[in-house]
Design a protein that fits this description.
mainly alpha; 2 domains; transmembrane; single chain; 287 residues
Length: 287
Amino acid sequence: MISLVGTGLVMITLRDLFHTLWHPTRHGGLSRLVMTTLWRLARRLRARRRVVGLAGPLAMVTVAGMWAATVVLGWAVIHWPHMPGAFTFSPGSEAAQEPALLDSVHPSLVLVTTLELGDIAPGEGRLRLMSPLESLVGFALLTATVSWVPEIHPALIRRRVLAVRPAVLRGSDSVTQQIDCTAGALLLDGLATEVVRVRTDFTQYAEAYYFHDGEDRSSPAVMIDYVSTLARRGQVARRPEVRLAGDLLAGALKDLAAVLDRLFLHTGDTPAEVFAAYPADHGRTQP
């Protein structure tokens, strides 16, 4: 029964890792709970913007550490009932004189990290067959954690591109007449594409939400309100292609607001109110 508890810990961790990194919805249970908790703690601290800027990277490091610690603990619990009789110890080792649980953590940590020190090794046939599996789980955990970081950065870049383009347009103070042309339709259509990409990124890489965007002009939380303004201007333009592009952008924004509210903000309000809560959650104010 004790070994089954350890097996359950390992399986829960692998499930959380799978749902966080590879499942189409990417909604890890434990990892999302850790990230949300750290985000809320960061919001409550002083020097808010500086602390919030560390929330995303710190959350990823904490989640990776949680996965590693839980896997090591799970395998240690699996070994515990079989310690020390089912294991062989190197000559002169005093490990067998330690508490059984402590002795179980050592081979678990060695096998998960694939170090294979050899001072404590499984001796029974069943445990000897499990040792390569434990090393394989440790190698998969290390590989998945290392590949997790490069997956996030493209999503952050796409999010900042969505913010910088409207920031440049806002500086030129585009009016309805200026976007009521073929170029305006292409502009609104391009913004709609970028909004859809960011919406998809929030679904696939939810942890990207907890990263700080630097200055206001590179933050979609700040600039999304102006994107909504451009969509409304496009919807009342004279040219049908501009109105179509405005409707497309407005629909993409509505979908983005629904994702933000469902996954992060939980306001249950209209898109306009969600986009007002978005910068507030990131410690920013709309211009």
